[in-house]
Amino acid sequence: MAIFNLNINGKSMQVDVDPATPVLWVLRDHLDLVGTKYGCGVAACGACTIHLDGNAVRSCVMPVSSVGGSKITTIEGLSENGDHPVQKAWLEHDVPQCGYCQAGQIMSASALLSNNPNPSEEDIDNAMNGNICRCGTYLRIKAAVKTAAQNL
Amino acid sequence: MATLDKKLDRRSFLKVSALAGGGMVLSFSWLAGCKPTEEEMIGLPKEWFELNSYIKIGENGAVTLYSPNPEFGSNVKTSMPMILAEELDTDWKNVFVEQADFFPQRFDRQFTGGSQGIRQGWTPLRTAGATARALLVAAAAQTWNVLASEITTAAGKLEHKASGKKAHYGEMASLAATLEVPEEVPLKEIKSFKIIGTSKRNVDGEKIVTGKPLFAIDHKVEGMKYAALVMPPAFGMRLKSFDKSSVTGMSGIMDVFPISLFKEDYARNFFDTTTFPEVVAIVGNSTWEVMQAKKNLNVEWEKAPESSFTLAGRGGGTSTATIPSGLENTLSHKARMAEYIQKPGNVVRRDGDPEGAFKKAAKVLERTYTAPFLAHNTMEPMNCFADVKGDKAVVYGPTQAPEFIMGTLVQALGIPRENIQINLARMGGGFGRRAYSHHMVEAALISQKIQAPVKLVYTREDDMSAGVYRPTYSATYRAALDENNNLLAFHVKAGGIPETPLHANRFPAGAIDNYLAEAWDIPSNITIGAFRAPRSNFIAGAEQSFLDELAEEMGKDPIEFRLELLKRAETNPVGENNDYDAKRYAGVLELVREKSNWNTPQANVSRGVSAYFCHNSYVAEVVDTVIKDNQPVVESVYAAVDCGIVINPDAARNMGEGAVVDGIGNAFFGELTFDNGAPSKRNFDKYRMIRIGEAPKKIEVHFVENNEDPTGLGEPLFPPVFAAVANSLYKATGKRYYEQPFAPQLEMQNLRM
Ligand code: FES
Ligand code: FES
C-alpha cells in the first residue's frame, strides 16, 4: 500500500492503495467515480477510456503509480453540466442503446476532437477503433462525432 | 373510441390510494436500488397520488410512469412509458420515468427477451394508461357536476367545453386516487395517437453521457465487500480442492470458500442453465485485490463424471436432464456433426411425397451450412450486488428474467420468497445471456456467508469462458428440380450441439408441395442458451443462402423467386400450421426492393438479399458490398421491417441498425472454439468483435406502415443479415460461403476484410 495524490477532474484526491492497482479500479472502487467502465482489463475494448493530460488512455492497464502529476479527466469531469459538444451531439443523435460502452466512446471522441477538430472519416475510424460497442451503435457514434466537430 | 371489451386484469391494479408526503409507497422497493433521486428533477410536486401500479400523478401535474421490464438497451424504458402516456393523454414533457423493481403482484411479465416486451405489454400498458385517464375524468365529472362523457382530455388537461371548466391532471389526482377502478375503459383509436409513433429520446440519455451510476456494477453501499469467483478451467471439469492459505495472506483478502448453487432436491427450471454449479468465491476489500487473489489461488480440478439433475417441466411434471462427461473439442464436434449430416434425422414435417420427388428429379442441389458457438460478450460482464442478512435478502443485478431466478434464490438461500427483494438494474447488454441469472445466486450466497453486502464481478475472462453460448449448428438443404428447372421438392435436415436450429413450419414450408424437414442433436456438456433470435440466428442464414443459390440455379431473380413461393403459400398453402403470414412476408420483400432500388443495379456494387420471419415480425434486407483495395467491404444495408405499429421510430431504427451491425460482425468474425473443454478465446484480444471501421457506411431501416399490434424488434433484424452478407459476398467474389465466420475464408482467398 502507498499513498498517491492524484489530480482528477481538476480536484486533488488522495488514495492509499497497492501501487499496481490500475487507475480504473482506483476511480471505481476508491473514489466512487463509476462512470469509467470495466470491459476487458487488457486494453482491448475501450470501456475504461479516460484522458491523461488530454489524451485518451485505457485506465485498466495503467497502474496508479505511473500517473504522477498528470491530469486525469473522467466522464464525470468532461464538462460541468454535461454540455460538452460531444455529450450534446450524443444526445442529439440518441446514440446509446445499453449505454455501457458510451462513456469510453465519448472520452475517445472528445480526445480526438481536442487534438484534431476536423477529423476525416478515416481519422474517426482510427481514433475510435479501440472502442467496442456490442450494441452496434457505430453509425450514430460516427454521426455524433461529426456533429460535435461542427459545434466545437 | 374503441372500447376494450375485455375485463381489466385486476391483479396489476391494487387498491388505489392517495399517498401523502412525497408519495413513495413504503412496501415498494424503489428506494432500495440505486435510483436517481427525483429531487434532481425540476417541477417536483409536494404530493404524489397513485392511480395504479404504473402511474403516479403529482398535485402540480407531474407524472411518474413506471417502466415494468428490465432495460438492456432495447429502450423499453422509454417506449413502454410512451404507451402509458399515450392512453393517459398526458404531455410527455411532464413525465418522469422510473424503473420498476421486480414486483409480480403489481406488474405483468417483467421479462425482457424474445422481443416480446412491447407485444405483450401493449394491451396491459394501454389499459393502465386509459384506466388512470378514466379515473381523472370521473374525478372531474364529480367535481364539476357534469357528465364524464362530456369531458375531454389533451396533454394532461381536462376540459368541459359547455361550462368552460378546465383543470390539469394534478388538480384532480387526489380525488381520482380514491375512486373505484372502472371495469371497462375506452382505448384511443390509432389515428389519434399523439405520442406513439413520434420519436422520443432515451429517458436515460443524459445519465449515460455524463457517467451517472446506472448499472449494478456501479452500485456501492457502506461496508460493501468485493467478490470474485474461481471457476473450472474447462467444461467437463469440476472442483476437487483448493488451498485457502495460498491467498489468505494477500493484501485485502478476507475469506475464501466454495459455493454451491443448487440443493440436492431442487428441481431446476429451464432458465437454471448454470455453467459451473460449484465455484470458489474470494471476498476482499476491492475488485483489484480479489482479482489478484484469483490468479494466485491454488486449486485442484478433476474431470466431472456424467451427472444428472431434475428439471421441472412447464405443466408441473419433472424430467431428468443428463450432463455428459468428457472434455470436448471443436475438431471432434465437427467430425460428429459431419456424421449426423449423413444419417437420417427425426422427421418433424413431411408434406406430399418428398422422397418420391427426389427420385424423379433431373437435378438435385445439395448444400450444407455450418456455424460455430458464439459468446454473448455483453459489454458489462456478469455481476451482481447482494445484501443478505439473517432471513432477508436484497439482490440488485442485471437480469432479463427476475421471475425465473427467484425460485433458485429461494432454494439456494433457504429464505422465503417474500423476504427476497430483486431490484432491476439497467443492463450493459443482454442478448439472451442475462436470462440465465446465476450470477445473482452466486452474489447472494456469498453475501449470506459473510452476512454483509457484497458486489460480485466476473472478469471478462470469466464472462467469456463460463458462458451460456449460442450452440454450433449445421443445416443441409436439398432441392429437387425437373429438367425444366421447376422445383419439385425441398428437404432440410438441421441439427446442432446440443440442439437443432430447425423451425419446420416456417417458410418455405407451405410453399412447396413436397417438403421434408428433419432434425438431429448431439448432447454436450457445454452450456448453451438464448442468443439474440435463438435458432433463427443460424437457420435464417442457411435457408436464405440456399434459396439464393437455388434461385440462381433456376435462373430467377432472388426476390422474384421468393415472391413466387410466397404467392403460392398465400393463395394455396401446402400443409398445416404454417408459421407465417405470406402476405406480410412478401410485403417486406417488396418494400426492400423499392427502397434499395433493387431493379436498378449500380456498377461495382454487389448485392445480396435475404428475408426472414421470427418473433412475430417480418424483415427483408439487402446488403451492398464493394471491393476496395482487393477487399470486399459491406457498404450499405437496406432493411424493411413489418413489426406492426412502431412506438418510437428513431429508437426503433437505432435498434435495427445495431442488429444489422451485430449480424455483420458475427457473420465475418464471430466464433468460439473449444480445446479439451476450454474455450480458446477468453478476452477481446482474441475474440474478434466488429469495430467502427468495419460497420457499413449506411444502414436504412424502413418500416411497413400498418395498424397491426406491435411485435418484436430487438431480434428480427439480426437473422437475415447472415445470408444477405453471404449472398452479396458471392456476387463480389464469385464464391459461395457455407461456413461461418466468413472472414478467415476471405483472408485465405487473399481478399482480406
Ligand atoms: S477495460 Fe480497459 S480497454 Fe477494456
Ligand atoms: S451501447 Fe451497448 S455496448 Fe455500446
Main attributes of the structure:
heterodimer, A: 152 residues, alpha+beta, Ubiquitin-like (UB roll), DNA polymerase, domain 1, 2 domains, 5-stranded mixed sheet, 5 strands, globular, B: 753 residues, Aldehyde Oxidoreductase, domain 4, 3 domains, 7-stranded mixed sheet, 17 helices, disordered N terminus, binds FE2/S2 (inorganic) cluster
- Fraction of residues in H or I helices of chain A: 25-40%
Tally the beta strands of chain B. Answer: 32
Average pLDDT rating of chain B: 90
Q: Which runs of chain B of at least 5 residues are low in confidence (pLDDT < 50)?
A: 1-42
Report on the architecture of this protein.
The complex is a heterodimer of chains A (152) and B (753). With 152 residues, chain A is α+β, with helices and mostly antiparallel strands. Helices cover 34% and strands 16% of the residues of chain A. Chain A has two domains: 2-76, Ubiquitin-like (UB roll) (Roll), CATH 3.10.20; 85-151, DNA polymerase, domain 1. Chain A is built from five helices and five strands. Chain A has a five-stranded mixed beta sheet, with helices on both faces. The longest helix of chain A is centred in the last third of the chain and has 14 residues, at 102-115. By secondary structure, chain B is an alpha+beta fold. Chain B has a seven-stranded mixed beta sheet with strand order 13-14-11-23-20-21-22, with helices on both faces. A five-stranded mixed beta sheet of chain B has the order 2-3-4-5-6. A five-stranded mixed beta sheet of chain B has the order 18-26-25-24-19, sandwiched between helices. Chain B starts with a strand and ends in a 5-residue tail after the last helix. At the A-B interface, helix 1, helix 2, helix 3, helix 4 and helix 5 of A face helix 4, helix 6 and helix 15 of B. Bound molecules: FE2/S2 (inorganic) cluster (FES) (2 copies). One FE2/S2 (inorganic) cluster sits between chains A (96-102, 133-135, 137) and B (73, 379, 429). One FE2/S2 (inorganic) cluster (FES) sits between chains A (96-102, 133-135, 137) and B (73, 379, 429).
